[in-house]
Amino acid sequence: MTFVQLIDCRTNRFEEMDRLLDQWVEQTRGRRTATHAVVGKDRTETSHLVEIVEFPSYEEAVRNARLPETDRIFREMSALCQGTPTVTDLDVVRDARLNGDTARRFFEVATASDDLSPLTGLVEEDYHDHDPSNEQDVHGLDRLRRELDTWRAGFDFTFRVEDRIAQADRVCTRWSWDGIHKGDFLGLPATGNRVTMTGATILRFSTEGKIAEGWWQYDRLGLMAQLGAVEPAGR
User: Fold this and answer.
1) How far is CA 105 from CA 46, 118, 122, 123, 189, in A?
2) Can you point out the beta strands (E) in 76-232?
3) Which of 20, 88, 195, 199 could cross-link to 6 by cystine, CB 3.0-4.6 Å?
4) What is the pTM of this model?
């Protein structure tokens, strides 16, 4: 996020305004440059509305304003308001995506920390982990630590983040994993093999900002083939 516009107005005709916004979204499909829009209603003065619109840059906001549909819809919205809406242009100077930062720290701790004690500040005690490679879900922070210790004992590994998307209380990380098989893993003695795999993890956050639940998808079968435990696919 590098640029946002705040549109401030007062109206008692919110439903009509909401329909106008829907029209603008439909009519500008494929041409608008706005990437995210939020409308908030004042709790103490319900006629007071603020719309926050996000753009990749100021220049893209100008392009968006020049669309004929934008001009028409804004004029029709203004007619529904008590007075002329005000527009404030803001260059973003800080963009703290707190859940995304916690997700990043989680992967750093899992990989690089001497111990897993920092997880206490990141993960809820009643954490629930979903991994289709496990017969049963993992419940609890202590169980998560033991699960991670199994991987850390078996491999020297690193995660490389390929994509990270944060929305509401969830953060999705698409990652690549690279490791050296240094110790026993699921009954397989160390091979010294360098192994790789890819996967994705969705983390759900509690209202306290800690990780409460996780869903993992990754190529466990491909990993086991690289360790010589199963035949590679296609043979």
Assistant:
1) 39, 9, 8, 11, 30
2) 86-91, 123-130, 138-139, 155-167, 170-181, 194-205, 211-218
3) 88
4) 0.75
